[in-house]
């Protein structure tokens, strides 16, 4: 039965996907091969070793084993080494194939030495396997005794800080120059009575003021103007946002005032 | 001093050495088997270790190694560690020094903050503060005072050597610290806002 | 079998007995003080315990008691099964121990394969290997060395006790291949000369 939801069958290649996991790299394999030749690595025949390795790789390829790249690189290098060793001596490039072969031999010796050393290390009397320590030693106790450091200055400074912190805090609000709303209504109301034409708001401000007092006078005068307009005592005109504000005395038109 | 020891004895010794807890004869036998006279081995070992730094002892039918009782003092070592007093401890000490004798409630009233129990303990451990009786008020609270060690540590011949409030003010030590200033600043802004509204 | 033992010796014995880890001379002195010749005491104790079920041993300058190795069969329990190291980890550990300090590249040069990330981690987790600074060559590679726990675990008094290290050194097997080649190169030139003659 064909089912839409059946995943496509995983292709099952005949290839046996075996990596060379039993060998940790080509050098490891070479060492294993070398040891089949002779116990003493100083006496091995590099040429025979190369042949063995190449035969091994060839066999693996016939089995369609997946070979890691480094095995193939080693195979290529060994094939080169083999050909160089077989070539007539005078045609030899630097470094000499003998040196390359010797180098390989030295590397194998060193790996072998470390492998044996590792095994001997593991065979020693190891804690937890061969020798044992006490399961739960009581332990040595270190009792830390605090020695406190404090100076007289620290002491009096602390006291000063407490006193400073806990003193009743007196808040003095500075008297700031302001024009109160009442003052402004009084002033604007008086001045506008004389103004028949549209007059800018600024003209109603007391002269000779600056800073906070000027700003307070402006704000209060504006609010005063709104209040006086509400009372119908003056009219306000402004052409647009942020444009100057003009005031004039209200034209006595009772009906219009009612409508507003 | 090397002496031959039979393997059974050595096994008993080793098993007792590694064991987490005291072992009964039955438990020991599980390890060392029946190859020897266990009780005799234990007696021999016990005799051997008598007078040494480690002793083999039997308690309620269980055997274990322990260090000799007279060496207990060696197994713990004291170490001086210089540590800085916390700010809370420093302030509490200052209040006691300036106002002694004071109760904990009075210290808290002056500090404006609760005094943790550990704070007074630290000061007493340091040897600078001592309980000085009880105040004869309801609840009879403990009152605290400073000690001779306090005076000598801070190089004072008496408490009257402590600078007075006027001295502190003159030294600028009564000026609010920066942190306090910031707090006050924030507060006054709020107050101004309220005024404007 | 009761024998008198001086208090200093007893103290050393007791301190080593309760300690959770092997102790250096300096650490021991913190507890037992300077009242006696510490090294002499340790030697005396070590001699005394030789051949017993418990031995006093020195590993990398640190002293501890442990059971005699031949009693392992009595003391070993199933749960004690030490985790088996992979061959890669074993070789890497050997290379670090015999060549220390070594960089990862140097380990790889000897093994002919890359060092898998987990390998060094396993050794460091076991507490046997530690980073030991950097080699002052281009790239400043990290270098690795063994720890005193390594020495303790494998029962080595020092790295000189590493099995066969003297023979390996004498055979030049701890020298890099290039260095070995130089030595051999000179020789082979002589041989070639003879051949030519």
What does this structure look like?
The complex is a heterotrimer, with one copy of chain A (260 residues) and two copies of chain B (197 residues). With 260 residues, chain A is mainly alpha-helical. Chain A has helices at residues 25-37, 46-62, 69-86, 97-122, 152-166, 181-192, 211-230, 254-259; strands at residues 141-149, 199-200, 234-238, 245-249. Chain A is elongated. With 197 residues, chain B is α+β, with helices and mostly antiparallel strands. Chains in contact: A-B, A-C, B-C. The interface between A and C is large, with 40 and 51 residues. Strand 1 of chain A pairs parallel with strand 4 (76-84) of chain B, so a sheet runs across the interface.
Question: Quick recap of the structure?
Answer:
The complex is a heterotrimer, with 1 copy of chain A (260 residues) and 2 copies of chain B (197 residues). Chain A is mainly alpha-helical. Chain A has 8 helices and 4 strands.
Sheet with the most strands of chain B? 3 strands, antiparallel
- The pLDDT mean of chain B sits at 81
Mean pLDDT across residues of chain A: 79
| SSE order of chain B, one letter for each helix or strand | HEHHEEHEHEHHEEHHH
Distance between the termini of chain B: 97 Å
Helix-and-strand structural type of chain A: mainly alpha
Oligomer: heterotrimer
- Overall strand count of chain A: 4
Helicity of chain A, as a percent range: 40-55%
């Amino acid at each position: 039965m064909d089912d839409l939801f059946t995943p496509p069958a995983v292709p099952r290649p005949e290839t046996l996907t075996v990596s060379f996991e039993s060998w940790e790299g080509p050098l490891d394999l070479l060492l294993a091969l070398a040891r089949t030749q002779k116990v003493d690595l100083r006496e091995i025949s590099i040429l025979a070793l190369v042949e063995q390795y190449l035969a091994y790789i060839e066999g693996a390829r016939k089995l369609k084993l997946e070979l890691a790249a480094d095995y193939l690189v080693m195979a290529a290098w060994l094939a080169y080494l083999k050909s160089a060793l077989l070539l007539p001596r005078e045609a030899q490039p630097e470094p000499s194939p003998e040196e390359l072969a010797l180098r390989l031999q030295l590397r194998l010796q060193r790996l072998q030495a470390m492998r044996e050393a590792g095994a001997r290390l593991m065979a020693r009397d190891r804690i937890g396997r061969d020798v044992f320590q006490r399961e739960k030693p009581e332990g040595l106790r270190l009792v830390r005794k605090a020695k406190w450091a404090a100076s007289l200055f620290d002491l009096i400074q602390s006291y000063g800080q407490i006193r400073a912190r806990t003193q009743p805090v007196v808040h003095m609000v500075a008297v700031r120059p302001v024009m109160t709303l009442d003052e402004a209504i009084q002033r604007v109301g008086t001045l506008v009575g004389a103004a028949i034409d549209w007059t800018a708001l600024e003209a109603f401000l007391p002269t000779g003021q600056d800073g906070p007092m000027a700003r307070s006078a402006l704000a209060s005068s504006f609010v005063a103007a709104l209040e006086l307009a509400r009372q119908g005592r003056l009219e306000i005109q402004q052409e647009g946002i942020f444009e100057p504000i003009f005031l004039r005395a209200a034209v006595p038109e009772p009906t219009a005032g009612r409508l507003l | 001093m090397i002496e031959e020891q039979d393997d059974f004895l050595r096994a008993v010794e080793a098993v007792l050495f590694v064991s987490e807890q005291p072992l009964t004869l039955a438990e020991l036998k599980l390890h060392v088997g029946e190859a020897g006279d266990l009780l005799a081995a234990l007696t021999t070992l016990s005799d051997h270790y008598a007078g040494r730094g480690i002793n083999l002892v039997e308690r309620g039918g269980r055997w274990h190694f322990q260090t000799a009782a007279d060496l207990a003092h060696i197994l713990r070592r004291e170490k001086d560690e210089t540590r800085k007093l916390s700010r809370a401890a420093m302030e509490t000490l200052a209040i006691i020094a300036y106002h002694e004798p004071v109760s904990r409630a009075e210290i808290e009233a002056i500090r404006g903050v609760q005094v943790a129990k550990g704070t007074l303990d630290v000061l007493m451990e340091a040897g600078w503060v001592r309980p000085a009786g009880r105040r004869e008020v309801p609840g009879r609270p403990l009152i605290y005072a400073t000690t001779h060690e306090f005076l000598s540590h801070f190089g004072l011949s008496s408490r009257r050597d402590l600078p007075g409030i006027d001295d502190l003010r003159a030294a600028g030590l009564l000026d609010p610290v920066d942190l306090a200033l910031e707090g006050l600043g924030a507060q006054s802004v709020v107050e101004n806002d309220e005024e404007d509204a």
